[in-house]
Amino acid sequence: MKTDIILAGVGGQGILSIAATIGTAALSNDLHLKQAEVHGMSQRGGAVQSHLRISSKPIASDLIPKGACDIILSVEPMESLRYIEFLHKDSWIITNSTPFINITNYPDLEKVIEKIKTRKNVIILDADKIAKEIGSPRSSNIVALGAATPFIDIPFAAFEEALKQIFMKKGERIINANIEALRAGRAVADETLKQ
Amino acid sequence: MQKLLLLGAEAIAQGAIDGGMSGVYAYPGTPSTEITEYVQHDELAKERNIHSQWSSNEKTAMESGLGMSYAGKRAMVCMKHVGLNVAADAFINSAITGSNGGLLVTVADDPSMHSSQNEQDSRFYGKFAQIPILEPSSQQEAYDMAYYGFQLSEKFRIPVMVRITTRLAHSRAGVERKELLDQNEVVLPSNPKQFVLLPSIARAQYKDLLNSFSGFVEDSENSSFNHYYDGTDKKLGIIACGLAYNYLMENYQDDDLNFPLLKIGQYPLPRTKVEKIMEECDEVLILEDGYPIIEELLKGYLAKEKVRGRLDGSLPRDGELNPNLIAKALKLASEEEILEVDKSIADVVANRPPAMCVGCGHIDAYDALNEALSDYGIGRVFSDIGCYTLGALPPYNAINTCVDMGASITMAKGAADAGLIPAVSVIGDSTFTHSGMTGLIDAVNENSPITILISDNFTTGMTGGQDSAALGKIENICEGIGVDPDHIIVFTPLKKNHDMMVDIIRKELAYDGVSVVIPRRQCVQTTRNISLNEKIKELNLR
Fold this sequence. Notes:
The complex is a heterodimer of chains A (195) and B (542).
Chain A: E1 2-10, H1 15-28, E2 32-36, E3 47-55, E4 69-74, H2 79-82, E5 87-96, H3 109-117, E6 121-125, H4 127-133, H5 140-148, H6 156-166, H7 172-194
Parallel strand pairs in A: 1-4, 4-5, 5-6
Antiparallel strand pairs in A: 1-3, 2-3
Helix pairs in contact in A: 1-6, 4-5, 5-7, 6-7
Chain B: E1 4-7, H1 8-18, E2 21-26, H2 33-41, H3 43-47, H4 58-70, E3 74-80, H5 81-97, E4 103-109, H6 122-129, E5 133-134, H7 139-156, E6 160-165, H8 166-169, E7 171-175, H9 199-222, E8 227-229, E9 236-241, H10 244-250, E10 261-264, E11 266-267, H11 271-280, E12 283-287, H12 293-299, E13 307-308, H13 323-329, H14 335-338, H15 361-373, E14 381-382, H16 407-418, E15 423-428, H17 429-445, E16 450-455, H18 474-481, E17 488-491, H19 498-510, E18 515-519, H20 530-538
Parallel strand pairs in B: 2-3, 3-4, 4-6, 5-6, 9-10, 9-12, 12-13, 14-15, 15-16, 16-18, 17-18
Antiparallel strand pairs in B: 1-7, 5-11, 8-10
Helix pairs in contact in B: 1-2, 1-7, 4-5, 5-6, 10-13, 15-19, 16-17, 17-18
């Protein structure tokens, strides 16, 4: 198996936690992994992405070639479209629908959603709202990850285990909140796939 | 042993720790920062008492590293590419002194300028200094090269450069560790004159360096980091340096690469391998994630050779490489063939440049400065390297220059000398102690009519909140350098203080001499940094 994922968002939105979770889950399944991150200036509220590649075979490039990306997982709707040229015809876009507006020329949200929906394989969920509903508003990134799990060829339980490892130092309550967030996101994806 | 999941930068740190390093010396700079941070937080490094505190700048780091090497122990100096400009005097001369304990100079380049002012290629510096260079293609090689680099350094008693680029520094993969080596004991150099670069000694030392070169080449010839892969199709040969090897192989995941391939990870170039590929192939494509250094070398000034790369347009002249650019150079696929999606659906996407954080003290300082300067007109604010450089962007449009660390004070001085009065500098606390202080002496010595804002947020903010060497020292430094204490003024940059700040800055702008205005408020990103909070309290800074 081979899955190439671009994680998209704005600096500070927690895409590195998503990357760490998928990475840990991949390693525990004996998969090869390369994950390129953005550090430095862009982390200050700028557009950020992480290229995450997992494969049963050794991986050459740290960067995903254009046209080869299988999944864009975005924690912000407009950001889900920024890396569109990396996708192929059958790729999935999984995106949070709550915008992060820190620029004056943010486009009309409806238009953004409309553009996303022109793609064949799309899951749009309000991860912020779901995270609030389950009482952990800071876990919206993990809600979004949950919605992407059906498309990553790693058992769902491995993601839960990964969250336990990553948030180990933060205690039981944070671990459980994140696991619940993961499950809530997964439920939305399962529901969407049924339709 | 289970593999560690490490960034390339972290892999270098781990390789150096396991290779018996006694100290790392560095100033933070993207994409090199994580090397030193890793050593600072590593339990084994703490246990082994490995030095890891930040230096004031790259030059002091380079010199401290050289001092540790003089004393016989293994040291690594880390910096971003432009940091090597700051350290260059010490760096170039360290090739003449040579090393005693193993000495690695790890430089992280930033092709495409993700977080930098330029994309200079540090291999030029390595070549200039005439020392061996190691350039990893993977996180595992990054680890191996740091580990092996100390041995190479000690074999030839020469500093060794490890050159990485942003993508490798900030990309994670599994890394397998090697056996943990002991640190060296303190041992003085066997030749007591080795580090005394008086002309008569330096001439002899330089001859030694020149004589060592054939040994460096021989080591490269036998190095496992340089590998020749035979190929049946000799129409083209490929030389892939460092990370470019990965981007090349990405294009041959399903098909075999039939062209002869020379993978380069150690310089100077392995001469016989280069001669072989040049002889047996009709054309040779050079892949370098940086400047076309090897390409230019092989092409020659008269460009007679059959060499392809960045200079003949096969690859872009600037910017970092990626798998698609290499596919194009190999004519495997055109851009149109690669793109399966309708790009127009991204038309709606707006640019989202980095910005100062909500609640940042720099913002309030700029608001006050802009208003105070409105009497004088635009174009007189010289700034520096840090988060406050983002003040160049709307809505602030507050600064007019950003060149190199410390240039704000000296450029303002030069402009004032030319008659642009008042001229203003905006510099951060950490940048001030990095390279601002010496410029301040120049300004004080000539009583230059400049107003210097040292926007003090107690940290090196842009790189992620590392220690600032200036913490609690700025007023004393300025006074010691000779700034009139009546013109050293501290205030808290907050909206509610706006009018007061404008008044103060206005008054200082009108003063015919050096003023230092210090807007002082903690970086909002560091409010949960317990040890910093304790130090701030201890120093009574708020």
